[in-house]
Design a protein that fits this description.
Radius of gyration: 24 Å
Helix content: 55-70%
Distance between the termini: 70 Å
Strand content: under 5%
Number of strands: 2
Largest sheet: 2 strands, parallel
Structural class: mainly alpha
Number of domains: 2
Shape: elongated
């Protein structure tokens, strides 16, 4: 995160006010109403760096939840405060890998309804675009993002579980060793 970005509050409000149409079932084959690839195409034209058909195809092969989250992100990224601040080289991986990772965590609607998930989505969006929330330093923005991050929270919980498992194994080994030493001492006496 290196460049000053827009106000976090403006983007949070925009996300909270996402039109219901963006939550329609994404078009896949002959089912669904929302053409997410058209939203992505429009967004790429809006930033003045149109995606090629091949690039669009890489983004449209995701699951329904990922496509819905991508539609929500297109709504967010269309905000006037982000105009001129989005570059295609940063946008493509965000719409592909980052949003798919977020979609694996929660249903797309949760990123609209839950205030912490909403802030997580906005902060991850800004971070992936190389932008800082207005009025925050890079350290502040990173600290807040880590505090909100579902992925980071799961990593910490997994690390804590692993540490507890290892501590339990060590305790069990020490108990066995103490029992063996006591038995050895008893047989010597």
């Amino acid at each position: 995160m290196t460049h000053a970005g827009p106000s976090l509050e403006i983007l949070l409000r925009r996300l909270a006010e996402t039109p219901q149409d963006f939550l329609d079932a994404p078009r896949t084959g002959k089912s669904g109403q929302l053409h997410v690839s058209a939203l992505i195409f429009d967004l790429s034209h809006q930033i003045g760096q149109p995606f090629t058909e091949a690039e669009l195809r890489t983004l449209s092969g995701t699951d329904a939840n990922g496509m819905t989250l991508c539609a929500i992100a297109c709504w967010l990224l269309s905000d006037d405060t982000l105009q001129g601040r989005i570059s295609k080289p940063r946008l493509l991986p965000f719409l592909g890998q980052t949003l798919q990772a977020l979609a694996a965590e929660y249903k797309a609607e949760r990123y609209l309804l839950d205030p912490e998930r909403r802030e997580e989505l906005v902060r991850i969006t800004l971070a992936d675009l190389g932008l800082l929330p207005a009025g925050e330093t890079a350290a502040q923005a990173q600290d807040r993002l880590q505090a909100l991050s579902s992925t980071e929270r799961r990593r910490i919980i997994a690390a804590a579980r692993e540490a507890e498992k290892r501590a339990r194994e060590i305790r069990e080994a020490l108990i066995k060793k103490a029992a063996a030493e006591a038995a050895d001492k008893y047989t010597r006496e």
